[in-house]
Design goal:
Number of helices: 8
Number of strands: 0
Number of domains: 1
Order of helices and strands: HHHHHHHH
Helix content: 55-70%
Radius of gyration: 31 Å
Strand content: under 5%
């Protein structure tokens, strides 16, 4: 009973956390007092660091669910929400005409859409690399997601807001998804390795004793004296 309540609480908490990641960018930005000379991109870089801490906590919570069905359902719910947010943000960005090589948008709605793409692409990468087998199965259940992820990865790679850690994450998730070729030394340690069944050991056959050949005795019967 306690486990069930805890998991339900985690589900609500994670979905709420994801919603906050998506919707709180502008409120946080507007609450900070920043010099006029600081660009919107620099402000967002600082905000992104806090978002990444939220992502790490969410992924850790998901990975610690030890019930397969509940963990699967959790990832399914998060990805459904995540890809819906990405799709909506893509529509807004296309309408605005904003391109990654342009300055960070001044328009609040456009800026929020760009932030949603960046944050949810990174969050998807976190979940994919940490819980790869289950995430691959859920991700592949809807083919339209691949095209959306390729678009979001391209936008993120062309957006100059990331530090080394985020750029490395984008590279690793691109390899994991097969968007780019895997490097020779690429290994995801969280992949479940299927052990090859060991060949049955042959029991050594017992050597059959061969009957000894009777050698002819010298002489005939013993003579009784």
């Amino acid at each position: 009973m306690l486990v069930s309540v805890a998991v339900r609480f985690c589900t609500i908490g994670l979905l709420l956390s994801l919603t906050l990641v998506v919707t709180s960018t502008e409120s946080e930005a507007s609450s900070e007092v920043t010099p006029v000379s600081v660009s919107q991109k620099d402000i967002y870089r600082r905000l992104l660091k806090h978002k990444r801490q939220d992502h790490a906590l969410a992924v850790k919570t998901i990975s610690q669910i030890d019930d397969f069905v509940k963990q699967y359902r959790m990832i399914e719910l998060v990805l459904d929400k995540l890809f819906q947010v990405l799709a909506d943000a893509r529509v807004q960005i296309n309408v605005s005409g904003w391109q990654p090589d342009m300055p960070f948008p001044d328009n609040e709605k456009d800026r929020e859409a760009v932030a949603q793409v960046i944050e949810n692409t990174l969050l998807f990468g976190d979940i994919l690399l940490r819980i790869p087998d289950m995430t691959h199965e859920i991700y592949k259940s809807q083919t339209r997601r691949r095209e959306l992820v390729i678009w979001s990865l391209q936008l993120c790679n062309e957006t100059d807001v990331f530090e080394h850690a985020e750029r490395k994450l984008l590279n690793l998730m691109s390899q994991e998804l097969g968007v780019i070729p895997m490097e020779e030394d690429y290994i995801n340690p969280y992949r479940i390795k299927l052990k090859k069944p060991s060949a049955p050991q042959k029991t050594p056959k017992k050597k059959q004793r061969q009957p000894r050949e009777k050698k002819p005795r010298l002489g005939g019967r013993r003579l009784e004296l």
